[in-house]
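Researcher: We plan to redesign the surface later, but first we want a full-length starting point. Tokens attached.
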């Protein structure tokens, strides 16, 4: 399998344009198109739906895209490992991220550290929670950022952020709509117990939400399907398939139907932590980042 063909596919998935992708990849459009066709033949199905007006990912393409990204990221990691072997003084921090971590917020949080440590290269890798645990244990990342869970009990941690959780009612469920809640403008977790909740997979959010229901002695009604993305969960709620609960940063800006979610003690929140490799913390530049995150 040709790595350039994987790069072509990733570029088209991002731009949804064969011509712009060819420019970005510095190849002719026929070269890019032929490379993607060869990749599709090897994988066994089309990655893209092509019409004269638009390019879209097929359902198969949506499933394959994270794996394509994973392969290309692994190649980058391999090159980085080789660089560190030949240049052991090279200072690198490898941060694994749950998809829940708002990247704009993280970039702002790291800005001062980057300015004070220009020689330190910071590398992000977005993974599901199980993969983050494996990578932290085998040393391919130096820290993971995710909701609290089993990893937090085995490694040093830093508290990063608490983000408000919002409830997006199932369309056509008037008893929990933003209009019928009136002046209250919020919904208690208990009020949502009868709603089928659409959950996402792998990022740690589902486990946290299920834990909130258990802590309140409630049984969550889980929607039988599972969304692959936060956008899908929001869309499904708007289509009336079920309700969903998402952090504020993961809802589209123009969504006015979401309601703050309340617990008896106050607003429901999703905490995010940095979980550190004890071995990595022995390196000065990584312990300096922990000190920065602990105090900024």
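Model: Full-length starting sequence:
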């Amino acid at each position: 399998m040709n790595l350039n063909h994987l790069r072509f596919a990733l570029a088209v998935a991002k731009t949804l344009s064969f011509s712009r992708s060819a420019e970005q990849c510095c190849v002719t459009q026929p070269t890019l198109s032929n490379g993607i066709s060869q990749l599709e033949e090897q994988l066994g199905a089309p990655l893209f739906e092509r019409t004269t007006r638009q390019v879209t990912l097929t359902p198969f393409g949506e499933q394959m895209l994270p794996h394509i990204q994973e392969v290309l990221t692994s190649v980058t990691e391999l090159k980085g490992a080789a660089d560190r072997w030949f240049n052991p003084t090279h200072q690198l921090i490898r941060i694994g991220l749950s998809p829940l971590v708002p990247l704009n917020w993280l970039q702002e949080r790291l800005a001062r550290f980057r300015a004070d440590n220009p020689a330190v290269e910071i590398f992000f890798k977005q993974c599901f929670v199980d993969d983050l645990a494996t990578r932290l244990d085998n040393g391919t990342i130096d820290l993971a950022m995710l909701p609290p869970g089993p990893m937090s009990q085995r490694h040093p941690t830093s508290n990063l952020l608490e983000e408000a959780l919002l409830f997006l009612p199932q369309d056509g469920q008037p008893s929990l709509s933003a209009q019928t809640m009136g002046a209250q403008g919020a919904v208690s977790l208990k009020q949502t117990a009868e709603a089928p909740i659409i959950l996402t997979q792998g990022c740690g959010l589902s486990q946290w939400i299920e834990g909130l229901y258990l802590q309140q002695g409630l049984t969550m009604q889980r929607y039988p399907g599972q969304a692959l993305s936060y956008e899908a969960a929001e869309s499904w709620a708007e289509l009336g398939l079920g309700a969903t609960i998402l952090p504020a940063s993961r809802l589209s800006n123009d969504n006015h139907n979401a309601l703050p979610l309340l617990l008896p003690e106050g607003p429901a929140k999703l905490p995010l932590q940095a979980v550190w490799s004890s071995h990595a913390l022995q390196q000065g530049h990584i312990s300096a980042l922990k000190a920065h995150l602990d105090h900024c």
